[in-house]
């Protein structure tokens, strides 16, 4: 049961961080503070900035749904693997969160 709770919490964290990433990236791109380095997401942003946000939001919902399916339907060994993958993704998104905070702070205090 402990693993299921960890999967649930990490999937929620990843979903929230992904939404923050989408909003912060959208803001930065709209104000020319940053450039999108992911070619696929750059394509979506250039096609329609709100499509970009919709995809980021949809991905957050998707990761949460998949995580709940893993909790309910998958064998323990796959749940363990999935938990490790979520842990890695959450570490990456946490780092990205701090990068976004840094440039948001710098963009408000640049002279």
Automatic annotation (TrEMBL):
Keywords: Membrane, Transmembrane, Transmembrane helix. Residues 13-105 form the DUF5658 domain. It comes from the Bacteria. The chain crosses the membrane at residues 7-30, 50-71, 83-105. The keyword Transmembrane helix applies. InterPro entries: DUF5658. This is DUF5658 domain-containing protein. It comes from Ureibacillus thermosphaericus. The lineage of its organism: Bacteria, Bacillati, Bacillota, Bacilli, Bacillales.
């Amino acid at each position: 049961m402990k693993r299921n709770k960890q999967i649930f919490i990490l999937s929620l964290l990843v979903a929230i961080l992904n939404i923050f990433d989408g909003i912060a990236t959208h803001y930065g791109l709209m104000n020319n503070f940053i450039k999108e380095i992911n070619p696929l997401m750059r394509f979506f942003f250039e096609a329609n900035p709100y499509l970009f946000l919709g995809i980021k939001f949809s991905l957050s919902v998707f990761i949460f749904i998949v995580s709940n399916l893993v909790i309910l339907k998958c064998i323990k060994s796959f749940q363990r693997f999935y938990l490790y993958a979520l842990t890695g993704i959450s570490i990456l998104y946490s780092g990205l969160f701090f990068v976004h905070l840094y440039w948001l702070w710098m963009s408000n205090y640049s002279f």
